[in-house]
Amino acid sequence: MPVTILIVEDELAIADSIAYALRTDGFVAQHVSLGAQALQAMRATDPATLPALVVLDVGLPDMNGFEVCRQLRQFCNAPVIFLTARSDEIDRIVGLEIGADDYVTKPFSPRELVARIRVVLRRLAPPAAPGAPTPGARFELRDAEARILYRGQALDLTRYEYLLLKTLCERPSHVLSRAQLMDRVWADAPDTLDRTVDAHVKSLRAKLRQVDASDDPIQTHRGMGYSLAGA
Ligand code: CA
């Protein structure tokens, strides 16, 4: 099934060059010029046409790309690669306050962008090697019981620890920023701080260590966030 990439860019020449490079590489390119249209496109309910990744220009006529990303993150996990022309924007993206997966600086080579897109999509793909150890082998999610088993042993978790570990388990090998974790785990507590996330990761790690002291499946990505080891 061809993979659709959504291009959100108001400069048509740039959008065309990205679309061309994507199509050359076997992707389906969908293009919109406004942030509101991007959000609309990502609300598509047909999984066959839902874009797998969003290439998002920061400077859009109706709303900036950061705001688009923030609203997108409230209902959608699709990876976002920002297009930016300014270094102060890069600082915000690199801080990953807004849940971006990567960025490219204008001017850029469309082929380089397509290569980045492939890297991000590959990173998100479920581990392919059969028989390889996966988080599924370590963790067992029992949603109905709101319980998670680690190496066959039920964990005694607080509500937020449970939601945090469940969120990480659902996206193995995917780096989730503190902001993304706050959006998903602490959705009912909007004034949560970064250090709340860190404190819960710490207590969660301690509980996992009690089961298996030789393993630390939660990986810290300095300045970016956390992931659950995929293999
Ligand atoms: Ca622009």
UniProtKB/TrEMBL annotation:
SUPFAM superfamilies with a match to the protein in the record: C-terminal effector domain of the bipartite response regulators (SSF46894), CheY-like (SSF52172)
Any single GO CC term annotated in Swiss-Prot or TrEMBL for this entry: protein-DNA complex
SMART domains recorded: REC (SM00448), Trans_reg_C (SM00862)
GO molecular function annotations of the record: phosphorelay response regulator activity; transcription cis-regulatory region binding
Keywords for the protein's UniProt record, in alphabetical order: DNA-binding, Phosphoprotein
Modified residues (4-aspartylphosphate): 57
Response regulatory domain: residues covered: 4-121
Residues in OmpR/PhoB-type domain copies: 130-230
InterPro entries, A to Z: CheY-like_superfamily, OmpR/PhoB-type_DNA-bd, Sig_transdc_resp-reg_C-effctor, Sig_transdc_resp-reg_receiver, WalR-like, WH-like_DNA-bd_sf
GO biological process, one term: regulation of DNA-templated transcription
Entries under CDD domains matching the protein: trans_reg_C
DNA-binding residues (ranges): 130-230
Pfam family for this entry, one: Response_reg
UniProt protein name: Two-component system response regulator CreB
Gene source species: Massilia atriviolacea
